């Protein structure tokens, strides 16, 4: 068992109605560390973006033929050996007489619950002019009203064919337009602000930049993220833009983060890419692993709500020309079949070791989906823990590697944790069923009772502090929780609270015992609740405070603490007043519901 596997074991759940509990003690800094931090800790209480889905493009005008019925089922079905795609991108032909070509596959996808959105490459020929600034065509401002009507008409046409478009974008890759229409960032912002409100048949998506490149990049004269920054800075344009779309060509992981856009309240979709190239066969292995890594980066770094491949059917796509799912397709399927629309990405240890990438998602059916990408050339033994305290009632693994495609197996589990082998160069998706334990008090009234007997019970260090169990000093039993290497007063220990058990607005009892042996003769200890309020701001609410004497145990307790209304991402935390580099030992933190 690895050091971190020991560190993040399952939470023991007890219940009593009003009992005081043992707690904290301080140890010398020289005590050796026993555990390493490599467990993947999943916290259902800390949420990120809602997932809209995974998909691809159907473009019969360029592909030469439409998808067959069998290929449509393979793409949008979610049965055995099907991709489970939930988004379809279609082409807005500049010639309205050709719009019927988009209908058959779009209608099939819509009938199977997929979101269908559309992207234009060119306006109708009578609206366009030649472009002398690097694009094939340009749309003069005098034709913006007519162009908005053209896009609106497409949405109306599709609706009349039984396809209610989810959105239509302003332009495909206006910053890479040698073969289609170029728009400057000012022009797209102007169009959104003053003309996009005329598009009433569907939602309006931003222009889809060729690359999600930073504005500071020397080669980005007028493109990349500049499109989105200008929209954000224009109140009318932002109001008329329902969601943002971008492409990931040549986009490094470090570029994918865009805090201003991620915090704007509107979803961001990655609407086109192929990874890593269009020259290799899609079954080439382990090259196909780049697809899984790219999806992971888009979800975790870019906070994307959707990930859409280029052609669904192509030699380098998720479906090969013969209609079979490719290795690249199985990399997408590790996400698309199990991370479904409406799921919410939640907090998880993202890189437990180098070149191993993990993301996690939850749904409304008490399930958590964990996707682990192992790009290393070695098999890797990985432990997982529900840091938010839920008990596990089942784990099903689906795995793709050089020799496997969505191979299914059941994984053993224990309490709030499980462990699994991640073979070299593989992707594993774990569908974790959560039980009802820790969401209701037991027969004694306790929600949980952390005794720290060879188990940190999902407590983690805060700031520079680290945590481990130690038997050197104890309040009861044989061990306690050592909190060490603090360098500031706010450093300490923290534990995520299960939002199903600890309900905002309700009253609970919290208690802990603490002690210390380094520092001043007396010191003040704090038990606090860290949470996110309705405005998205981090707040700290005091649960209990106590003054301790060096070498003595003191209790922190509040038998009638009300969790603030609207609190999210809740964490209980302990800290000590003196900002010294000292070591502290915590023993037996117990939480119970007040009578």
Describe this structure in words.
The strands form five sheets. The chain has a ten-stranded mixed beta sheet with strand order 19-18-22-16-15-14-2-17-21-20, covered by helices on one side. The relative contact order is 0.16. Helix 6 (185-194) packs parallel to helix 7 (226-232) and helix 10 runs parallel beside helix 11 (327-336). The chain has 595 residues and is α+β, with helices and mostly antiparallel strands. Helices cover 15% and strands 33% of the residues. The protein contains eleven helices and 33 strands.
Number of helices: 11
Mean pLDDT over all positions: 87
The secondary-structure class comes to: alpha+beta
- What is the CA-CA span between the terminal residues? 41 Å
What portion of residues is helical? 10-25%
User: Tell me, what's the shape?
Assistant: elongated
């Amino acid at each position: 068992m690895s050091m971190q596997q020991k560190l993040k074991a399952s939470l023991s759940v007890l219940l009593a109605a009003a009992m005081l509990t043992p707690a904290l003690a301080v140890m010398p800094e020289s005590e050796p560390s026993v555990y390493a931090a490599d467990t993947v800790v999943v916290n259902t209480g800390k949420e990120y973006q809602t997932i809209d889905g995974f998909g691809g493009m159907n473009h019969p005008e360029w592909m030469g033929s439409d998808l067959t019925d069998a290929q449509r089922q393979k793409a949008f079905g979610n049965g055995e050996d099907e991709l489970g795609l939930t988004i379809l991108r279609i082409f807005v032909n500049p010639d309205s007489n050709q719009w019927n070509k988009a209908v058959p596959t779009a209608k099939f996808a819509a009938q199977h619950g997929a979101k269908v959105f559309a992207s234009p490459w060119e306006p109708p020929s009578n609206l366009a002019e030649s472009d002398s600034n690097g694009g094939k065509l340009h749309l003069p401002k005098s034709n913006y009203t007519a162009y908005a009507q053209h896009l609106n008409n497409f949405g109306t046409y599709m609706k009349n064919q039984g396809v209610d478009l989810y959105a239509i974008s302003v332009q495909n890759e206006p910053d890479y337009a040698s073969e289609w229409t170029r728009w400057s960032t000012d022009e797209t912002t102007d169009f959104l602000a003053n003309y996009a409100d005329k598009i009433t048949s569907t939602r309006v998506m931003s222009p889809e930049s060729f690359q999600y490149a930073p504005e500071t990049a020397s080669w980005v004269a007028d493109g990349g993220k500049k499109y989105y920054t200008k929209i954000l800075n224009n109140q009318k344009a932002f109001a008329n833009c329902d969601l943002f779309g971008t492409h990931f060509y040549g986009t490094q992981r470090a570029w994918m983060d865009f805090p201003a856009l991620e915090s704007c309240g509107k979803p961001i979709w990655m609407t086109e890419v192929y990874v890593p190239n269009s020259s290799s066969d899609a079954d080439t292995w382990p090259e196909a692993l780049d697809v899984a890594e790219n999806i992971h980066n888009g979800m975790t770094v870019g906070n994307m709500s959707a990930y859409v491949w280029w052609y669904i059917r192509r030699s380098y796509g998720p479906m090969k020309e013969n209609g079979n799912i490719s290795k690249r397709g199985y990399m997408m399927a590790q996400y698309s079949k199990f991370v479904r629309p409406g799921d919410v990405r939640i907090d998880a240890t993202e890189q437990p070791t180098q070149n191993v990438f993990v993301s996690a998602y939850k749904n409304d059916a008490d399930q958590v989906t964990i996707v682990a990408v192992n790009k290393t050339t070695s098999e890797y033994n990985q432990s997982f823990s529900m840091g938010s305290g839920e008990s596990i009632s089942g784990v099903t693994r689906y795995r793709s590697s050089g020799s496997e495609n969505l191979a299914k197996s059941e994984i053993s589990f224990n309490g709030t944790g499980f462990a699994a082998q991640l073979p070299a160069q593989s992707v594993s998706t774990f569908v974790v069923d959560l039980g009802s334990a820790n969401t209701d008090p037991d027969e004694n009234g306790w929600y949980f009772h952390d005794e720290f007997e060879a188990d940190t019970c999902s407590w983690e260090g805060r700031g520079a502090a680290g945590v481990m169990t130690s038997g050197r000093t104890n309040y009861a039993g044989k061990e306690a929780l050592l909190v060490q290497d603090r360098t500031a007063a706010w450093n300490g220990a923290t534990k995520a609270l299960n939002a199903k058990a600890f309900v905002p607005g309700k009253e609970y009892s919290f208690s802990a015992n603490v002690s210390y042996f380094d520092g001043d003769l007396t010191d003040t200890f704090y038990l606090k609740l860290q949470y996110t309020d309705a405005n998205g701001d981090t707040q700290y609410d005091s649960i209990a405070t106590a003054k301790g004497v060096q070498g003595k145990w003191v209790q922190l307790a509040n038998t009638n603490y009300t969790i603030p209304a609207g609190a999210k991402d809740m964490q209980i935390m302990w800290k000590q007043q003196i900002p010294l580099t000292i070591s502290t030992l915590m023993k037996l933190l117990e939480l119970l519901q007040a009578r």
